[in-house]
# Entry
Amino acid sequence: MTGAPLGSQTVSAQRRVEAVVRRLHAGAPLVHDGRSAAEESTVRYVLLPSASRPRLVLPAEAPRAAAAALGRLLQGGGRRRVFRGAAVAVARSGLLGRWPGATLTVPQTSRSVVARLADAVDETELVLTMRLGPPRANWKPVAQVTDRAGRVLAFVKIGHDELTSTLVRHESDALHLLAERPLADVRVPEVRGTVQQDDLVALVLSPLEAPEPPAGDAATRRVLLDVVSAIAAPDRRARQPWGASAFAGGLARRLAAAGARALPAAQLLRRLMDERGGEELTFAPWHGDLNPGNVRLAARGPSVVWDWERYSEGVPLGLDLLHHDLTSAMDVQPPVAAAASLASRSRAGLESLGLTSSDVLLVTALHLLELVTRYLEDRQDQAGSPLGRIEEWALPALETTVREAVEEHR
Ligand SMILES: Nc1ncnc2c1ncn2[C@@H]1O[C@H](COP(=O)(O)OP(=O)(O)O)[C@@H](O)[C@H]1O
Ligand SMILES: [Mg+2]
# Structure
């Protein structure tokens, strides 16, 4: 691949979406502003709200499919709900077929990724609706695949460069593994197939229905703790002095490889290892990105968890809970405040997972170290994600947590 990665902030949103659509259809998209009916051998997409800031890519000739897909792709309240309402109304009105705004038209060929996706779900013709996120290093479209009537056939995650294709392949491996040893009361997507073409990887996943959520804070917390515990498979846990663990060694290696900016974090890890590295912790599998958008808790029956790109094993028990608590706090307060109060917010939950009171600061520090390492490795700052500036939020919290963890121990 040439030029900047598509997730980079230097690549305009419009170029990014054109590049992905072109690769999915194995042909060059033509940008049209104004009315132009699609030819029979082409597919036309409407970009909403505009060509310069596209958040949705909707099939112009399949309004029912677009309307059905939108409800699922745009979950959440507040401004999202307003945007969803407007977009669904546009789709239902039939306006998409004669959309006066930005559209992309691509030729339809049997060699395209889309044609191969159709094979993967045993359909002759399918319709893609895509939601696009803001620029970040791991920016990647997620497409909902339906038939023309709007029946959901699959979700497709699209890796398009080195980082995102690696993540998508990793998710495929994790889901195959989880299919072999299912988690208690947690449902995950099934892999229906993988389509590869050049540097594009499209992972085809079975669609999962969101369950009825638990009512009230206490029940919600209980179910979340059960989900975290189930992912940290009780039969795959082991206790070990953490300083000698593969996890700690991996952190040290990754930080050393991340350059000068990683030096403060590397020193904090070293300090924590020197002072408390001999203490035993429980190691277990984790989801790796259990933010509130990646889990739907269930009042009864299995909860649903997707987005397994960061799954790994052998990490300190509790990291998924910390990650969930941090990312949900960041929805309502500035990252620096959310990170600073992480240990106190998660303490009771961590203890109910089986951590001792003196594990709490230690494991919180290890979670912040993992996060800082990931953001540095992914070069999130260069991709334009504000969270990439770890010095402004995660690093201060890490410093405080390490200091307190060391003092507590003396
Ligand atoms: N298999 C699936 N079934 C139902 N919805 C899904 C599925 N996979 C993804 N989604 C929806 O698409 C969204 C984005 O998918 P996700 O895997 O989280 O991608 P990303 O890595 O971009 O966060 C999810 O939050 C969810 O709403
Ligand atoms: Mg996600």
